[in-house]
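Explain this record to help learners:
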Amino acid sequence: MENKLKLYGFNNLTKSLSFNIYDVCYARTPKAQLDYIAYVDEVYNSQRITDIMTHLTEMIGAQVLSVSRQDYDPQGASATFLIADDTMIPTGGTETVAHLDKSHVTVHTYPEYHPDTSIATFRVDIDVATCGKITPLTALDYLIGSFDSDIITMDYRVRGFTRNLSGEKLFIDHNITSIQNYIDEATLEKYDAVDINVYQANMFHTKMLIKEIELQNYLFNTDVHEISPRSRLDITNALRKEMIEIFSGRNVFGNGSFSG
């Protein structure tokens, strides 16, 4: 912020970002489906997502206080960060420590596939809650670029209030009309984006769906030239239908399957 707010006491506004990313893939055979799950499970293991989230906390101006991470069997990984901005770092007393559990980052991964459709998906759920002057919105472009993001669902909410020196309550401390305000235009051009915002409650919701499907980028361990033109069209349509249903949050096309 260019003009820093003069506050009475601590800025206890809580800014929460829930960020869901989906990567969709076509795995042609049962073996390819299992290989895809193993691949994403290795590429996005707990150490990798810990590295990504460590950089995120640096970008938003926070400091990592502690990290817990875990890989799961048969697949999936999680990481949890306790973070704080520079006004919340412990100095030996107990008053500051009481605020620390309100600033955190959690990440969970969910690789999965449907054996009847040859469609595999990889979902990443990221939740960032900050208490103080920092906001997680400044790292959106980095998050989108850190994963293969075909569908993105974001929820941002500012809760609570703080006070200025005259005692007036402040229910938000930064200007925002849409989450899209914090995403680079070059990134936005690649997606269809929809907003559902409740300004009176400082609640913001944005969904993004990739516009173009370059089929080779969605084929796992398969070259596009190994597939007939008709099958290429069918696979592209199947991928698009999967993305539309995830983006819509409902079964739009029924339970039809495509096996290629």
